Amino acid sequence: MSEQSYLIRQISVFLDNTVGSMARLAHYLSGKNINLRALSVAETRDFGAARLIVHDPDKCIQALKEEGYHFSETDVLVVEVPDRPGGMIRVLDTLNEEHINVEYIYSMVKGKEGMASVVLRASDPVKACAALKGSGVNLLTPEDVTLS
Fold it and tell me: Which of 20, 49, 74 is the endpoint of a domain?
């Protein structure tokens, strides 16, 4: 499988940093039958960014456009790591050795017994994918991630 096969489409939705803005987005997406598989929210003083992995990115993008939300798309990787202290070390060491910057990491709902699924944004996702595969890290495909 090529490295491109492991790129996961993440949607970042930009929200006002006000009471209820995340709840409104969650209600809206739920009403459109869009299932969140992973969610991370980062904020600044004036706005927030909700990073979403969803079961149907095209449907989500269309819904966001219809409602006038501002958003962007980014390619991320999802890796499986042992759910124990130090479980991320092999991933982080591999990327460090290849001089690939980790821009952010967050976890997601999906996970096998004893494993954690982690969303990772790297400065060069294709190179990161090749390096991680070469070191024996299990990467998930979009199909693996989005199955309900």
Answer: 74
